[in-house]
Amino acid sequence: MKDGFVRVAAATPDIRVADCVFNADSIIRTIRIAEEKQVKILAFPELCLTGYTCGDLFLQETLLEGAKAALAGIAQATRGMDVLAAVGMPLMKGGKLYNVAAMVQDGAVLGVVPKTNIPNYSEFYEARHFARGNEIPEPIELLGEEVYFGTRMLFRCVDVPGLVTAAEICEDLWVAQPPSTGHALAGAYVIVNASASDETTGKEDYRRELVKSHSARLVCGYVYADAGEGESTTDLVFAGHDLIAENGTLLAESSRFENHILFSEIDLGRLASERRRMTTYPAECRDGYVTVEYELPSRRREELLELNLTRPIDKAPFVPGDPMQRRKRCEEITMIQAMGLKKRLVHTHSRQAVIGISGGLDSTLALLVTRKAFELCGLDPSGILAVTMPCFGTTDRTYHNAVELIRQLGASLREIPIRDSVTLHLKEIGHDINVHDVTYENAQARERTQVLMDLANMTGALVVGTGDLSELALGWATYNGDHMSMYGVNASIPKTLVRYLVSYFADETSNEALRTVLLDILDTPVSPELIPPREGEITQKTEDIVGPYELHDFFLYYAVRFGFEPRKIYRLAKTAFGEEYHPDVILKWLKNFYRRFFAQQFKRSCLPDGPKVGSVAVSPRGDLRMPSDACAALWMEQIETLVP
Q: Among the options 115, 495, 568, 591, which is catalytic?
């Protein structure tokens, strides 16, 4: 439960139709398994205590009393347990029968949530037996205790910040105004659904998308438990299609046609961050709601435990893992980049562009995008003045790749060596050319930018920037050097994604020569090439200096997108990269990330324009309005407390 994670589960237990004793025993066994797995919220299917397919047996007093007696046994069995279980059953109140979810925890029934929307169409005939539940909770007597009965109920765990749960039942999710909408707006972060959704062809996909999209719309965790094997197959088949989703992401999904228990973790901190960030998400309003508070019997023991996460933690959150989705995303991103540049070219009446080409990944992507923008404008690619500016650190490999790339894309090649001008400049300012410090490096970067700007003035062109999001986050750019341009097409593309975008172009092209040079660029170490090579090989490797970009992009995503604390990001990184990096290494680069991120904001405060393409950007006109002199002390203090 540390860092806002809480384990949840959806279970489809073995049942027999109308055998409440057998069903209760099966439910109790499942609850015990969930408790051992540190589950805090557990959803069971609709009417699982009796079976959903009892038909007119629901009108039999014997079945209804048997269900109540079975509920008493379940409640007794949960004494001393943390898990809050939503158990589906029929229940009489005021002379009418209701389809309800009994919320059971630590030996007691905390409340009863009735089904609001009673289907009576197609294969469903629930109105024959069940009445519509009341929304406003009212007290009833159940098992000798007074509990609330009603739809508008929240169950708040006092030991876990943000763990507020609400329930709805099957059809409630499928209607135009689900009760869970009100639950979320009242402050519920986890919604459980006790369901009995029969299986028909194609329904699986619809059900999955419904749960995902609903969790996204409400910014909540959604735990969906479906009836399965054991229900009557007189007319219907139930497949036990259990689902756990969080804010539009499917965390876990069961196999169909077999009974099981499905686990995952809901990130309450992430949900709270999203609701806080979204100014259109309403403030909590609990009018008409009753909040039932409960404690965890094991809270003292749990304080010492860190939940081992089973939910997927993506190592590359900016890059889709599925190849087909990744290809589609790459196509979309490059079009966004190109359309952004197209608008700027048209607006400035520019028929030419100037871009510095180093033979590295960023300038390669920028040139590919610029060529696409020229195509969209109906301009000849020869209007792209691609400039290579060899200096002290340039290697033959990157130089030849730059030249070949320009030729294959049909751009105009211009070679302007800057060794002599930089040497003269260093001499004039009194800097020893043999001292390879930051002045030595930045003098080259600024000279290159000056050349590009002057060429743009000469030709009436627009300078296209090449720097990427990861470099901007770390401040790995020379102020008023490669930091500056007239339009930065890569400004919101992280380094891990740059690589896939270049690879996408290599896969898509029918030009074998272009594919060959792109693949070699992909295979070249990332380097600014500002330090002389050794025996023709690159000596200055960026990731040796600032750290692995895959780690920094991971840190950036969770720090900026969700505002997570360093300790939580560190924990996620250990889970995601445990096989690749030792915790000491992760912690080292996490410190470096925060140190650089805060210290280098002044560079981001005056960025050139550039298109936002993803959920994270650092433009002062976009996602990040941060003072340049903000202090990192609180973040660094927390990092110092972390233990590898």
A: 115
Active-site annotation holds for 229 = no
Annotated active-site residue 54? The verdict is no
CATH of 2-302, one of 3.60.110.10, 3.30.565.10, 3.40.50.720, 3.40.50.300: 3.60.110.10
For the residues of 298-335, what is the DSSP string, one character each?
THHHHTT------S---S-TTS-SSHHHHHHHHHHHHH
Return d(Cα 338, Cα 332) in angstroms, integer: 10
Q: Is the pLDDT of residue 349 over 70?
A: yes
Q: How far apart are the first and last CA of the chain?
A: 19
Does residue 88 sit in helix, strand or coil? strand
Kindly report the pTM of this predicted structure. Answer: 0.89
- 20, 170, 220, 391: the catalytic one is 170
Query: CB–CB of 240/260 below 8 Å?
Result: yes
Distance of CA 364 to the CA centre of its chain: 28
427 flagged as catalytic? no
The helix-helix angle for 438-459 and 419-428 (nearest 10°) equals 120
- Banded model confidence at residue 123, pLDDT cuts 50, 70, 90: confident
**Domain 323-640: which CATH number of 3.40.50.620, 3.30.70.940, 3.20.20.70, 3.30.230.10:** 3.40.50.620
Give the pLDDT score at 529: 75
Instruction: Give all strands of the β-sheet with 5-12 in edge-to-edge order.
Output: 138-142, 145-149, 108-114, 96-105, 84-93, 39-43, 5-12, 260-267
Indicate which residue of 35, 46, 168, 265 is catalytic.
Answer: 46
Q: What is the distance between the alpha carbons of residues 239 and 202, in angstroms, rounded to a whole number?
A: 13
* Sequence-separated (6 or more) residues with CB below 8 Å from residue 314: 321, 576
